[in-house]
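WARN no homologs supplied; continuing
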Amino acid sequence: MMPGRPTAVAALWLFASLALAQPGFAQDRETLWTKATAEGRVISLAWDKQHPWDAALTAAGAELVAKYQVDGRREVTEPLGRATVRPGDSRTVRFALPETVRANPIGPVCLFVQLPDRRVLPIRRANAKLTDTVGFRYDAWDRQMRQRTQARAAEQNLAAAERALAVSTQSVANQEASVKSRGWSTLDACTTIAAPANLASARPFDAVAPLEQDEVARRVCVRQVWLANDLITNYVENILPERFANDGNRRDVEAARSRLTATFSAAFVGTGGDVTALLKAIVDRLGGENATVNARLEQLREFARDWSTFAETSEDYRPQFGKAETYLRWQSTAEEVAFRIFGPALAKALNVAWAMEGVPAATTRDLESFLGASLDAYAGCVEDGRKQLATKWENWQAEQARAPQFATSARDFLVRECRQEVGLIDKLKAERAAIEGQLAKAKQAMTVASTPPALASKPELLNQISCSQP
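OK structure emitted
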């Protein structure tokens, strides 16, 4: 045994001695002459002058530590803060609690006080039902901390539901316009469609002649870029400012970066605005002597030509492949690159520059990657579009070759297509209704999660609130 350090038996004997000698102290035998209280976001620990560890506590203070479980039943031990006795606070240390702990607890957060020599301070007597003498809980702070975590998740769900509803509403409008443009109305009306009088002109909308397939593929892919630009421009100009304005002075870096990153899910777009101007700015920053610029020059000219030809008519254009709400996506690694390039300026414009602190600055390689990923996404879209259009044309040609049955087949094809297209409206409306329900729930969850429970407004004794009791 080391000299000068009381054994556990000696310490308990001293506690018992104090019980007989000093019955009038605020710290009593049940709390082992300590008093742990909570008020607001502060935990206070007071002890009696005859406490066996008085000298150590008075000289070096103590540390407040949290212990909790996370997913996978893994236990985390996290220091929350160290405190020493302040002038005027005789035998008392005060710990400021954080708004949240580092991980996401799946159960209560247990607190305990630890001395610099790693001894854990007992704050109550053990009994037959409770052997834990050191752990305690502050339930109001625990609930508030959990609710902040829930609020962050609820906000992300709300933003996702709002984006999904905007896309769904546009899909319904596009489909209704498409059906109307073809002279169709209801499912019953589909059965009255007659066989085409001129069979040669009865080809389906998406059966494109080979000489037209390249142009149509480019037109559809330009529309996908245009749609992404339109959606993200609205997100940047309307949705993002509102989300950050609702935060007030709260700074949640993780949530802020998640919102900003959502801006960069599509090729070419950046933060919205003129697409060709963005490309020119990237090329100018790289310089005309850059190897990537020179290698991609033909692709750049090709895209610029297609964009100037088709972009202005994209809003009302009905694509021959893909869905009306399909926009040109790219790899997740490209999202990260775009975030590093455009994130700082976007965050500054939204007065949330703090969200980008610690994010590596964009490099020349990032600019090259953005340019290459955008052009490759467009080239891939055009190539895939050509293949789809070629297949559609071949299928229709094979159907045409069956001359004796062609009239009936053509009519059946149109009837089926009519039913599919008209029926799709109801399906899209049902999906929109489901999304509206999800949005309503997300708003309700956001409202609940945004109102955290109040912390203790006057000192609340914590000594007898053990970590194991319900």
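Residues 403-449 form the longest helix (47 residues).
OK
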